[in-house]
Write a structure and sequence with these properties.
The chain is an all-alpha fold and 153 residues long. It is 70% helix and 0% strand. Pfam families: MARVEL.
């Protein structure tokens, strides 16, 4: 009888657990996503929030994404995935959806930045909103990188 080659399951790369998560692409993007998203929330909260509907969505997306990403990072660090392929699908769907939501938040934050240029306390609010817009677009980029790099492992 001819020998059978390695099964498809054994050729799949193992999902990282523990500190290896922080060294493995795309999972290494989770910590920068959390940090940049936290900066978005802090910077928006530091402004006078002259447009509560726009910036409320930005704060909701950034805070919710930070918390869910933190839970996802902790689950990888503690090995809850047990090397299941379903975690890759979950991870990709979460990061793809969050990238779309973050893009909408980043565009709304950029609009709030433009509108804050001539408002009360204009220089300070404009600078804070500009920084929040930068970090919102950076975080969007990180979520997009994470979502697509799962397919290229």
């Amino acid at each position: 009888m001819a020998s059978v080659g390695p099964s498809a399951a054994s050729t799949q790369p193992a999902l990282p657990s523990g500190p290896a998560v922080l060294k493995t692409i795309p999972y290494a993007f989770i910590l920068p996503e959390i940090l940049c998203g936290t900066w978005v929330w802090i910077l928006v909260a530091a402004t006078s929030v002259s447009l509560p509907l726009l910036q409320g969505w930005v704060m909701y997306v950034s805070l919710t994404s930070c918390l869910i990403s933190l839970l996802l990072l902790l689950s990888y660090l503690l090995g809850f995935h047990r090397n299941s392929e379903n975690w890759k699908v979950l991870d990709s769907l979460y990061h793809g959806t969050t990238a779309i939501l973050y893009m909408s938040a980043a565009v709304l934050q950029a609009n709030a930045t433009i509108n804050s240029e001539f408002g009360p306390n204009a220089p300070l609010n404009y600078q804070l909103n500009s920084a929040a817009s930068f970090f919102a677009f950076l975080t969007t980029f990180l979520y997009i990188l994470h979502a697509f790099s799962i397919y290229y492992q």
